[in-house]
Every structure is written in structure tokens, then in C-alpha cells.
């Protein structure tokens, strides 16, 4: 009997509920570091939902009252992905946030819990996924900045360009690479749309 091909409905992480003790204080903190306030809803009995989205993120945070029974400050290690951890750390510090120095793990792969095996400074080769900085919100919920500059193939299923400028940059990169390819080919490439698509998909970290 032939093996049945497994198909999966997409499961996308959309929201992380972060437990806080003072909703207004937490909301002020997150908006101060650039999170967008999407919703602030109040209901009967003190129920309140505040939906906040980090810059450039497809996933969001929810804080509020009556939204979780977790203890305030108990969330650990929510990772915020950035393309320049040094610049991101500087922005947080400028906003008055107590943030760790940039660090990498002694083993060079992800990072240990807490401060174990931390080595000050970015990864020596500035390896994608290998440089971090950490901070906490006023309740002690902890976050980690992680620098990702190149996605592993197959890591994402679609590419999202956050602005026209970002799309233009990707197209210019593809055009430059395609010019080199046509030079090696020795004649114009009649199938250039397929070449562009493959090049841009690979650059974005899409699988084949």
C-alpha cells in the first residue's frame, strides 16, 4: 500500500499572553519601546484586553486583567527577532530600558537558561541566530533579542516584504545576480521571471 501523503492545516503562532500586575504600567512600557497598540477593550467585572504588536511582527502580545491565571512576571524568554542586535539593544537603552549587553553562548548554539554560558559580545562570526540581548518588562517577564540575518532554507513558507523599499531592494539584488547569470549564459534569459522567483525565494529563506 502506498504511503499516504500527510497534509497539514497551517498552525501560526499569533498571540502570546503576558501576565502583568498593572495593565496601564505595562501598556506604557510596551508602547514606549515601539509596540503598536491595536486594541484596548474593557468589559464587565474589570475584564480588560490590550493587544500590542512589535514593529514588523506578524505575532502579537496580549496583556490585561482576567486574561490569564499565570502569575505576573512568570513569562520567560519570549524571543524578538531583529536583523541587528547591537542597534536594537541601543534603541531599547535609549528608551530607558535596562537591557543586557549583547552576548553569545559559549557553545555557539542558541543559549542556555538564565545567564549560564553567556559570553559578552556578538557571535564571533556574527552567525545568524547566534547573538542575543535580554531585558524584562516592569513585572519581570523576560524577553530575548535574537539576531537573524539569514533564514535556514525551509524555515518559512512565504516571504513578506514590509515596505516598497524592501521589495525594491530584493528586486535590485535579483537583477544584479541575474545580470551575472546572463553574462555566464552568453545570451538573454527568456525565462527570467522563473529565475527571479527562484533567486528571491532562496534569499528569503523559502524551501524549494
TrEMBL record:
Pfam families for this protein: Glyoxalase (PF00903)
The species this protein was found in: Kitasatospora acidiphila
Entry-linked InterPro entries: Glyas_Bleomycin-R_OHBP_Dase (IPR029068), Glyas_Fos-R_dOase_dom (IPR004360), VOC_core (IPR037523)
Domain of life: Bacteria
Residues annotated as domain VOC: 12-148
Protein name: Glyoxalase
PROSITE patterns on file: VOC
